[in-house]
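Budget justification aside, the reviewers requested a transparent look at the raw inputs and outputs of the sequence design task funded under Objective 1. We therefore reproduce one unedited record. The lines immediately below are the structure tokens for a 135-residue chain.
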């Protein structure tokens, strides 16, 4: 299965770590990137064909943070179907609850090892594709 993944994060190192993890777990994945929610919205609205299959979203970013971005795409008829996985340093239960209420499919607190990352990504993909099948 060929997957298109949008990674929205303002930290280039985190983008590269996540990209490498995604490619290890889903070898046919192609990743595209945005450094904040505002840029991600512009990117998504410019796509004519082939929307991302999954969005990995950091919460703490400049210009438009992850929660505002999540709220915006879940209100957008063209984008609301795309599963969003929160990928953040936050371990706060409040953030998990708020993002779930806003429509996030899954929540990952950024792991400290590659092994933990790969396990978290495998679970996130399973959740996202299970949700897609239900629709």
């Amino acid at each position: 299965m060929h997957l298109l993944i949008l990674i929205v994060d303002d930290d280039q190192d985190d983008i590269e770590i996540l990209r490498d993890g995604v490619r290890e777990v889903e070898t046919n994945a192609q990743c595209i990137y945005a450094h904040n929610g505002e840029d991600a919205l512009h990117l998504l609205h410019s796509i004519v064909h082939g929307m991302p299959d999954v969005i990995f979203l950091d919460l703490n970013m400049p210009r438009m943070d992850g929660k505002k971005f999540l709220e915006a795409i879940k209100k957008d008829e063209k984008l609301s179907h795309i599963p969003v996985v929160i990928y953040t340093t936050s371990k706060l239960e409040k953030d998990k609850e708020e993002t779930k209420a806003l429509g996030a499919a899954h929540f990952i607190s950024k792991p400290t090892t590659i092994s933990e990352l790969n396990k978290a990504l495998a679970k996130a993909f399973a959740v996202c594709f299970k949700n897609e099948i239900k629709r």
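The first helix runs from residue 12 to 25. Residues 3-134 form a domain with the Rossmann fold fold (CATH 3.40.50.2300). Computational costs for records of this kind are itemized in the attached budget.
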